[in-house]
Each structure stands twice: as C-alpha cells, then as structure tokens.
Specification:
Elements lengths: L9 H13 L17 E3 L4 E6 L17 H24 L3 E6 L7 H23 L2
Parallel strand pairs: 2-3
Antiparallel strand pairs: 1-2
C-alpha cells in the first residue's frame, strides 16, 4: 500500500474550484487558518467546506480496505472519520456552518447538484443576515 499517499488532495480541490467557478460561487479562500483546516472557507460567512477523499475518510460507497496491514488501515481510516466528526462538531460550536463533499460527489449528478444548491442557499442566507445586521 506504499503507493497510497495523501497528496493534499490537490486534484480534488482543483476540480471543486472549477465547479464553483462554473456555478458562479465566489468569496471562498483556500489555506485559511480555521480550526480543522477546511479545504475552502467563506471567512465572512463562517462557512467551511471539506472535500473528503473516499479512501482516506472512509466513504461507505467507495472505501476499500487494502489487503495488507488491515488493522493499521482500519485504525487510520476510522480515526480520520472520527476526527472529521469532531472537527464538524467543534466548528459548529464556534458558529461555523460545515459542508462536506465526498470526492465522488465531484463527478456530478444529483447529489452534487443538491449540495451546491444547499451551499448557495447558505451563502445567500449569510448575505441576508449581514444586510440586516444580525
């Protein structure tokens, strides 16, 4: 399994950037210092986006455990998923909205459409609250 490396999921992040551009979603930042290191942040709107790789984060549809060092990989992947849940809870406590996409969501289809619609609504809601001074 030496060939499995975390590369900072750069290709996945670049794919998501192109999706946001196609859908005219602006105002995001990368590498913004926020707890949990989200992949994308809308700092003024307190929205954090994570793009979770199917292997590294234990996607129920696509994560296939390697045949060797099974215990190591189970601990690693289940630990990542546990950390993801903790980060989501902690960010919510701090007033952030968290949106998570699976790597496979970026291939398109109805799930991506629903999640992008939700993201756009959250961004509009944050704009409305800012205009009202809430």
């Amino acid at each position: 399994m030496a060939s499995v490396r975390s590369s900072g999921n750069k290709s996945t992040e670049l794919k998501f950037i192109s999706i946001m551009k196609v859908h005219s979603i602006t105002g995001w930042r990368r590498h913004y210092h926020v707890y949990g290191n989200p992949d994308f942040v809308f700092p003024n709107k307190h929205i954090a986006i994570f793009i979770d790789g199917c292997f590294w984060h234990g996607c129920p549809k696509h994560c296939r455990m390697p045949a060797s060092r099974i215990q190591y990989w189970e601990n690693k992947i289940f630990g990542n998923a546990k950390r993801d849940r903790h980060v989501t809870r902690e960010l919510k406590k701090r007033g952030w909205t968290v949106v998570r996409f699976w790597e496979h969501d970026l291939a398109g289809g109805p799930v991506l459409g629903r999640k992008l619609t939700r993201l756009k609504r959250l961004l509009e809601k944050a704009d409305d609250q800012k205009k009202r001074g809430s």
